[in-house]
Amino acid sequence: LNIIDLQAIIIAEKDSISCANSVLPLNGGGSTMSDGLLQYHWFTNDGRIEGDISKQDIEVTSKGNYFLEVTLQSPEYTCKDTTSIQIKEDVTHPKIHFQGDTVLTCQQTSLDISAQISVPVKTVIWTSAEGNMFQQMDQNIIVVTPGKYYIEVVTTDGCISKDSIIVTEDK
User: Fold this and answer.
1) What digits encode the pLDDT tens for the residues 51-63?
2) 125, containing H or E segment
3) Which residue, 61, 65, 66, 67, is CA-closest to 21?
4) Which one, of 110, 115, 121, 117, lies nearest residue 165 by Cα?
5) Helix/strand/coil percentages in the chain, nearest 5
């Protein structure tokens, strides 16, 4: 009588997907002390698998529950074991809220527009489609020309948010 101890194993560098790391490799395996051919079958009911589901290694690109069924076959027996891993989503897109006047007048020839951002950011980039000149100071800009001004912010984990504000003129 042979007793076969087969255990399916999933190895992952981390348990979450983020904006900066939107692809997560999963390595499958099976521990056994028996000779025989290991076969792999990956599946999910709510995630997304990239690659061949019958290979030892796959990549996942969304949160979800991922399962690995390992089968050990020989001429005398077939053994199976299944394990799973839950991959979370660690994504925080920053929210942008503008403060300051948006109308240039004869009395107010420049405007200080401030962008309040909900989370810490790595970069803040202001642009103008019309090529209007402005002075950028971190999350704020000073404008002297009416037009549409765009802001793009990138968080430390790579999430990007964009917004715009329109400055008008009443002179």
Assistant:
1) 999 999 999 999 9
2) strand 121-128
3) 61
4) 115
5) 0, 60, 40
